[in-house]
Model the fold of this input.
Amino acid sequence: MARLYEYQGKQLLKEAKVPIPRGEVATTPQEVTKIAEKIGKPVAVKAQIWAGGRGKAGGIKFAQSPVEAEKAAKDLFGSEIKKLTVEKVLVEEKLNIDKEYYVGVIIDASMGVRSPVIMFSTEGGMDIETVPAEKIAQMTVDVLRGFRLYDALNLAVQLKVPTQFLPAIAQAIIGLYQTFKNYNCRTAEINPLVLTKEGKVVAGDCRMAIDDSSVYRHPELGIDVARESPTPPTELDKIAWWIEEGDLRGTCYIAQMVPEIKGLNYVGYHGLGGGGAILGVDALNRQGLKIADYADTSGNPTAAKVYRAAKVIMSQAGIEAYFLGGFIVANQEQWHHAHGVVKALREELPKRPGFPCVLLLCGNREKESLEILREGTKDLPGRIEIYGSEKVYETEFLAKRVKALIMEYRQERGIKEE
Done:
């Protein structure tokens, strides 16, 4: 899923006629000062990061004047909150809070539902999972019938919201659902939905994530990489998403695990099969090795897609091995993987003689696939070991082989581990 920053989500809510606080996003302390002057009252300066709980982590600061707002911004810009660097802040009017509510929409993908579910609670500002059931009203939406204003009113009435606030709260609930639907969200929430002491209902904070496959419909959102990620995308992440975006046949997921490889023991990891591939990561870690990336090509991708994935993995400066961890007897025809990997290795290994490669590939057309790997790599100047389904459960053995080949490679190049 592609996450949106708070300021982006609030603009979408504004389009849906959900009131939001007066405010603007800023990238410098000087911009913060100008925005605070324009607002003309106490403000909140809020770090824009993809993480919850930023308030407790010091990511929200209050200021009584533009001077204080600038000082707060200087403290936030460039700081790390939950391991995320603050590059933008949202400056908005400080709300005079009387009561906090919660409203959220998720997709329930379970067999018996497979529909959006709307939740409303009188306990905003808390994790919804910890709120007692009697303080939550929810409705499963029939996507053919839709969600209507009186449905939103019913949710609020169930929890005895005072009559004078029912219209505004119902409008906020239905506005969130319309945003969820119009922008193909997987999740959307307003938390808290604030009732001010002046009697106004305002979206105090919001979180939204867009479905990967529908990002192309919304270029106005400026999403570079349609991936669930706690950090902004790196250049490698953007290249990897370009592979997936241009060819939806099968999966090509690649995430850069470290922004820069410093030191030894990093492996370029090319997994297949999700959970099975994670077992390979664990085995490598037990051998003192670390993965520079996590990749998964499954779901019957084309050879061209596998080739591009392998090239991206091999492009990481500082890796000491390439590991194709096919820890699953897949029902996809594996010769596509074999052809793609062979092409990538034939282009890359001549540049780095002796480079370690451990290749595990299992599943349909396994015999033919392993023969393609053997024939395609037999004349290459690398340390190449190829295995099939007889080793699919032997994660420790394969991780040890990766480690042994790396040690040989280092010795050949005269590199000693510090």
Remarks:
- The first helix runs from residue 6 to 15.
- The first strand starts at residue 2 and ends at 4.
- The CA atoms of residues 44 and 359 lie 53 Å apart.
